[in-house]
Amino acid sequence: LLSYRTGWVELNTAVGVGFRRLTSLSGLQAARVRGAIMLGAITLDEGFGAWAGDNPVGWTVQEQDATNRVTQAAASVVRVTKNGGGVATWLERAVLTAGQLTHIEITLAATPTAPLRVRTRNGGGVESADIFVADASTPVGTYRFTLTPAAGHTVLRLVMAAGANGTVDIDAIRVWPAT
Q1: Which residue from 157, 160, 110 is spatially nearest to 136, judged by alpha carbons?
Q2: Would you give the DSSP letter of residue 38?
């Protein structure tokens, strides 16, 4: 690329590498980058396609009962449901490196009807403050944020608090280190 978000690529490679073709000039195409450029190896690229029973493979899940749980909402979509009271419902996975600047991307498949909180957790069970909160004002879409996990915080946790009442459908989660 010659400049931020615009530049030149050869012939028809623009569409294949994530660029949008703008014009064709003497065998070259002007292109514009769509979205953010990801640098670094992806640590987690989870589309929730693999399930063991009603839990996504590779994730640890805490559920209370049949109405406060983590389930498959549709093909490759995880649903977190909470009907108030009891304990928090969450799913988590050890995908972070403490002290390393990390990018996280979450794609919501539906507008949440209760808040889903993204946090980190250490080996002793201590959670961080909310890093991101998706609630009824958060429309369907992809959300990206960056964090540096504190010492010992290697677990990414998606949690609905004990008092929450509603559902959140998550289509995908990606995690990668900043380079």
Answers
A1: 110
A2: P
Backbone angles phi, psi at 69, to 5 degrees: -155, 175
**Quick one: CA torsion of 91, 95, 96, 97, rounded to 10 degrees?**
150
Is 157 within 8 Å of 59 (Cβ atoms)? no
Sign of CA dihedral 133, 137, 142, 144: negative
The identity of residue 108, as a single letter, is: L
pLDDT in tens, 42-72: 888 888 989 998 889 999 999 878 888 999 9
What are 83-87's contacts with CB under 8 Å, separation 24+? 83/165, 84/162, 84/163, 84/164, 84/165, 85/162, 85/163, 86/162, 87/62, 87/162
Q: 87: which strand partners?
A: none
At position 82, the amino acid (one-letter code) is K
Distances from the Cα of 59 to the Cα of 1, 91, 96, 148, angstroms = 38, 6, 14, 21
| Ramachandran quadrant class, 20 (left: phi over 0; alpha: psi -120 to 50; beta: rest) | beta
Model pLDDT, residue 31: 44
Q: Residue 56 half-sphere exposure, CB side, CA atoms within 13 Å?
A: 31
The model carries a pTM of 0.76
Determine the Cα–Cα distance for residues 19 and 35; give it in Å rounded to an integer: 10
